[in-house]
Amino acid sequence: MTRAPANLMDVRRLLLAHLDVDPETSRPQDLEPAEVGIVADASHRGGYHCGSDRVVPGDYSVVESTRDSSGLTLDASGLDIGTFSVTSAGRTHNLRSLSLWFVQQCVAGTADTRDIREIIYSPDGKTVRRWDRLGKRSTGDSSHLWHTHFSFFRDSTKAGRDQTPLFRRYLSEIGLISPPDMEDDMSEKAENEIHQVYTGLFYGGNSMGRAVDPDGTGPAKASNSIVTKLDYLMARLDDVASGVTTLSGKDWTDEPAIVAGVLAGLSPQRLAEALATAGLTPEAIAAAVPPDIARKVVDELTLRLSS
């Protein structure tokens, strides 16, 4: 039976603790418990709100990433957040502004977003958009006009990785909770910088130039990462080295030119002496040169030697 994992339950409790302003009363302005969902209803099949007992053949939440296929368990790996409105530090914050903030963090590639596969949201209550880390889709169904969906790679759910830091950072930035202390902030900054290096190495970025296929024209998917480009460079260098090795074994002698020089520069007597010294007959020389001039060489040498 599909279950709600502890790490997403922690996120749910955090959001309700600060966005359900009046927990004793159900009202539109607050984020109510029924508006923060993890496990889909019993009739739902497929997607990140379902565990292994309710996925379907070819389920996109399983087959499109090894992070999902390797992390599939009975745990759901999705989180829905409904509408709310809170005022903090003189500003009003709601589901729209929350969604845009989280998408911006994902686009920026901050370290605490690494486990988010997608966010399906509406920036204006009229259109539905999707940020997809895998670049597979760009929109979603109309239900996301009034709720925002987060998908987490299933391996992070299986590992029980803490997902609250990103949500704490949001609540801190809008002034609902105190910011982390300096030590925690420096630790997060260092982790983020390490993640940026990791992202550049293995996924690349817009400033890195064109994407390449590490196999040249092979089956590998083109990528913009530094590692892929280094692999591509090494493949090209291997090709060059192979070519040099092949060429180094070739006979760079220009037989037609040498034959012409021999025929033009030697007297019959000198030519006969050279052939005798080398142990070559006219036929042997002809066998060593291209077929299209072999007959002419034999005829010319025979003529000169008999004159």
What fraction strand?
5-15%
- Termini separation comes to 104 Å
Helix content: 40-55%
**Total beta-strand segments:** 7
Approximate shape: elongated
Number of helices: 12
What are the low-pLDDT stretches, counting only 5+ consecutive residues below 50?
none
* Mean pLDDT score: 84
Major β-sheet annotation: 5 strands, antiparallel
Structure, described:
The chain is an alpha+beta fold and 307 residues long. The chain folds into 3 domains: 6-202, no CATH class; 206-248; 255-306, no CATH class. Helices cover 46% and strands 10% of the residues. It has 12 helices and 7 strands. The chain has a 5-stranded antiparallel beta sheet. Strands 3-4 form a two-stranded antiparallel sheet. Helix 1 packs parallel to helix 6 (164-173). The radius of gyration is 36 Å and the shape is elongated. It starts with 5 loop residues before the first helix and ends with a helix. The model has no long low-confidence stretch (mean pLDDT 84).
